[in-house]
Amino acid sequence: MRENSQTAPGLARQLTEAYVALSKAEEVWHYSLTQSLRHITRTCANVLGVERASVWQLSADMNTLECLCLYLEDVDGYERGTVIQARAYPRYFTALTLERVIDAGDGLRDPRTRELAESYLKPLSIASLLDGTLRYEGKTRGVLCMEQVGRRRQWSEDEQNFVGSVADLVSQVILFYSLRDREARFRTLFEGTADGVFVLRGETIIECNPAATRLFRADRERLLGVPPWELSPPTQPGGGDSKHLAMERIQKALDGHGQSFEWRHLRLDKSEFDAEVTLNAVSLEGARCIIGAVRDVSDRKLAESALVQSQQQLAYRSTHDSLTELPNRDSLHQSATRMLAQASRNRHRVAVILLDLNRFKDVNDTLGHRIGDYLLRQVARRLAVLQQDGRVEVYRLGGDEFALLQADNQTDAQAEALVREVIAVLNEPLQAEGMSLEMGASVGVAIYPDHGDSSHALLRCADVAMYQAKTHGEHFQFYDARKDTHSTRRLTILADLGFALRQEGQLQLHFQPRIDLASGACNGCEALLRWQHPHLGMVPPGDFIPLAEMTEIIHTLSLWVVEAALRQARCWLDQGLNLAVAVNLSARNLIDTRCPDQIQTLLAKYQVPHHLLEIEITESALITDPERALQVVSQFHDLGIHLAIDDFGTGYSSMSYLKRLPINTLKVDRSFVKDMLTDEADAVIVRSTIGLAHSFGLNVVAEGVEDQATLEALCQLQCEQAQGYFISRPVPAGEFDSWYRQRCAEVP
Fold it and tell me: What is the CA radius of gyration of the chain?
């Protein structure tokens, strides 16, 4: 092994001078890390007379060593990027963590480096290594490596000290540039962020960014030195003292618990705004400070407030009649369900009283809807007086039909006394534009539990009794099952419906087109069930579907509708028409976990793309068993079937499920759309529903469009689609095809 020729006297002085020059060199400190490392490695190679000098950096997990800079003396150039895996060289990596300098005069035999021989040293003809460990922030971070090529070399103590010192210098350089880059990134973020950023030391602001000056409408100089609570009103919206709360938050942040909260701020011009604030502790120039970020959320808070108000109004409208402000039919069923449950526990009775006004249709047709509406509001006010004892609740069900619920009913006589009060207040003449109108009412009464155990059953019985009273010219009647001719018809309809499902021809689908409001083109339709009874004629869906929903026949009926709709969709696909078809499912379908698989089988049978089938569900259908309904609806979504909420805003829970259900579309109920141009309350609901749907990323379909003006108004509200009699009534498939061809000719 040969001794380096520079071990003569004076080497120590030469190495010391080289180190001092490096530590002061402009190339080391004033440019970039890359330039600094190039200058250091080239200088070391020249001073020590080695062919290779390099700097390597350890990864944070200590698993790899990456070359940041390699100087090659033979080409006077640089390379980088080589990576060494720690697991392949465990002894060498252990030595790096334990020793300040590794002086391997014989690199191929030294126990610390010989495992590098085959893969690294021999291929590069490296005979000797002198490595200085890089350490900073209390950890081993890398290595400064001097490599002698060709001949072995005994490293002197002065050379070892030199490499160790330069390794320390490299550690400082890497840390310096890391901090400088970090500071530059922080400054860029600090200056460029849209949020106001403050630095607090003690109880005052010592720095702020331009966004903070804009946020508080003040020059930087006016904000510096100000305690943060002076940028707040004396008290916060919750009533707490601003100074006390601010100091409490700051102290928690200083204790290491980052803070995030909403805060009411005060600008220097005395205007206020709401903000989201975050506080985090940092060390700056040896002092414990707070970095605070302030984001103005005033616009968001206003939007949230407006949305809440809109939701509250929509929720109110879904349970109240817009004309009289009385609770509506849905509200009656909710209240009656609770009332019946309580009555069952306490073994009490409940009276359901149904009435409609005598001769109201004649008055409405003669004097007009304006007078008719005015009279209905008078009736509502008179009936509302009967609620004052808290034992009676009044509802408007629609048209001139009203209902009352009487809780804790003990006897028929008690119910009759209330009925006579109702008749008395309605027998008083109603006044309208100087006219005195005598109308009166026909009243039907049903009693729980004598006549039924559900709100629907009791309301039906009260309706039968009211019809009997009107037919016989009496003021009121209690329900009498012997006079209920509807029961026989109901049984007949149910029996015949089962036969109709088995015999082709009676049941058929009509299709109501749905158009895209932006283009005017038809992109789908809703399939609606019709029943042509051989003896009863056309049976309205409202007469047989509710009856089917009371029995298992609804499952068969729903699958018949889906299959017929998919069969027609297949026909359209064969004609080159990609038309989406919407079908309605009932509450019973939504709690039947077999339903998704059955519909998937039908989709496969007719080879209809899943997205062309849209399933419409009503809000009330979700109430029966919400969790199971969510499970079934989610299965439909997973199949790629589109989902729509039908009659939105008329059910029990217009908002709560929007976040949970994987729906694509909201359908605005026709009851809101048809009068939206003349009834401001309906207009507000339509606007709010469209805005709400868009905020959830949902498509909107408006039902019940009956004129051009309504269509144009919906376009302005950015409603996506519409259907209604103005566009087309529901028609058989053949007529739909003709309508579609004509529409395509009119709308390119």
Answer: 42
Distance between CA atoms of 139 and 503, rounded to whole angstroms? 85
**Strand residues in 285-348 grouped as ranges (E):** 287-296
CB 335 within 8 A of CB 717: no
Within 13 A of 634's CA, how many CA atoms are on the CB side? Answer: 11
CA distance 539 to 558: 17
Burial of 549 (0-12, 13-18, 19+ CB in 10 A): middle
Q: What is the Cα–Cα distance from 361 to 368, expressed in whole angstroms?
A: 10
pLDDT at 436 over 90: no
pLDDT of 495 reads 84
Q: How far apart are CA 579 and CA 720, in angstroms?
A: 16
Within a 10 A sphere around the Cβ of 244, how many other Cβ atoms? 12
Q: Determine the Cα–Cα distance for residues 208 and 122; give it in Å rounded to an integer.
A: 58
What is the Cα–Cα distance from 229 to 244, expressed in whole angstroms?
Answer: 9
Helix axes 11-24, 33-48, angle to 10 degrees: 170
Q: How many CB atoms lie within 10 A of CB 721?
A: 20
Please say if the pLDDT value at position 4 is more than 60: no
Q: How many Cα neighbours within 13 Å face the side chain of 280?
A: 5
Residue reference for tokens 């030391």: 201
Which of 218, 320, 263 lies closest to 654, judged by CA?
A: 320
- Domains located in the chain, CATH noted: 2-185 (3.30.450.40), 193-296 (3.30.450.20), 312-483 (3.30.70.270), 510-528+553-731 (3.20.20.450)
CB 264 within 8 A of CB 245: no
As a whole number of angstroms, the distance between CA 670 and CA 723 comes to 10
Residues in CB range of 717: below 8 A, 6 or more apart: 686, 687, 690
Position of tokens 């199971």?
628
Instruction: For residue range 307-352, list pLDDT tens digits in order.
Output: 778 778 878 888 899 899 999 999 999 999 999 999 999 889 999 9
Which structure tokens are listed for 108?
């191929």
Tell me if 62 sits within 8 A of 84, measured CB to CB. no
CA dihedral 192, 197, 202, 204 (to 10 degrees): 100
Q: What is the predicted pLDDT for the residue at 655?
A: 56
Cβ burial 509-526 (10 Å sphere, 16+ → b, else e): bbbbbbbebeeeebebbb
